[in-house]
Design a protein that fits this description.
Order of helices and strands: HHEHHHHHHHHEHHH
Number of domains: 1
Largest sheet: 2 strands, parallel
């Protein structure tokens, strides 16, 4: 039996009739129906468009001028059109799925990056001192770890590339799941990823931080956050947008999620697990994060994975009819 073959349609088929004495909860039914609807891709686009609308309104209120949006929109539209074309014609299903999910992830990433900038305009009090004290209470010495990682070129190279592999892993996973006909895994990656990362970025507004760094050497992303908070950054190009979220750690969220969506029986579980273990070790130092950033990111990932399991739980097939 090929355990890596796609799950039968039962994984997302309608559940068998429930006993009237034990009906499922109304909220669980509603959530499951939303995520299992055949138009889930259109629903994902609707969710992203809502985020885009929030970005547009908030960016105008914050006085932001953003260049380079039109090329991004055209690129996303072309990829999405390619996906819908192959879906409509019924040819090259893996190409259709990979294109549609890639377009969704690119659109979401662009909207989320802008959202992180507008959220920073809340200018809430910084939490660095409190986060540093929490790390100290946990016995985490960032400076010692940073010196150890950066003192060896090979270690620095490996961990640096592991840290920067997040987006590459997402798109490689999309293509892999499409190729092996595991639409369910692409669906989990998209929905759990969008919800958990969106919550993470939203929390960065009331809990802003610059992250730990050596004296006098502020990371570039921290410097961008400073310019947003002091009002000196009002015009920027989309291509220059960088991640500015310290707490909770988005990289931690995605590292946990990527391991989860590649879980057995997929043979990709071991290499993906190793790569993301390296990413997790690298996050505090390559990404200038506090340990509490990672703890919060891991907690958010766990919560939304549990929600995803409840909403997209595989259902048992009714016994096949005799022939």
């Amino acid at each position: 039996m090929n355990t890596d073959s796609p799950a039968p349609v039962s994984e997302y088929s309608e559940a068998p009739p429930q006993s009237p004495h034990n009906p499922p909860g109304a909220s669980a039914r509603a959530l499951r129906k939303f995520l299992d609807d055949p138009d889930y891709i259109l629903r994902a686009w609707a969710a992203i468009l809502i985020l885009v609308a929030i970005d547009w309104v908030w960016a105008r209120r914050a006085g932001f001028e953003i260049d380079g949006i039109s090329p991004a929109v055209r690129g996303v539209a072309m990829i999405a059109a390619l996906g819908f074309f192959f879906d409509y014609t019924g040819r090259a299903r893996p190409v259709s799925e990979a294109a549609q999910y890639s377009a969704l992830w690119i659109a979401f990433a662009v909207a989320l990056a802008i959202y992180s900038y507008v959220v920073a305009t809340l200018r809430m009090p910084m939490w660095d001192l409190r986060f540093a004290r929490m790390d100290a209470a946990l016995g985490f010495n960032w400076s010692a770890g940073f010196d150890l990682i950066t003192s060896n070129w090979t270690v620095r190279y490996v961990f640096g590339h592991a840290y920067n592999s997040m987006m590459v892993q997402i798109f490689a996973s999309i293509a892999f799941f499409a190729l092996i006909n595991r639409t369910d895994r692409n669906r989990e990656l998209l929905w759990i990823g969008m919800l958990s990362v969106l919550i993470s970025v939203s929390l960065s507004g009331p809990f802003p931080a610059l992250g730990p760094y050596t004296k006098g050497v502020m990371p570039a992303w921290s410097a961008v956050l400073v310019t947003i908070r002091n009002g000196t950054l009002s015009k920027f190009t989309l291509a220059d947008v960088t991640g500015i979220v310290a707490f909770p750690s988005v990289h931690t969220v995605m590292a946990v999620l990527l391991v989860y969506v590649h879980r057995p029986p997929l043979r990709s579980f071991v290499p993906v697990g190793i790569l993301n273990a390296l990413m997790l070790v690298a996050i505090p130092f390559a990404g200038h994060h506090y340990l509490v950033d990672m703890i919060a990111g891991g907690a958010i990932a766990a919560v939304f994975i549990a929600i995803g399991q409840a909403a997209m739980r595989p259902r048992s097939l009714a016994r096949p009819q005799g022939v």
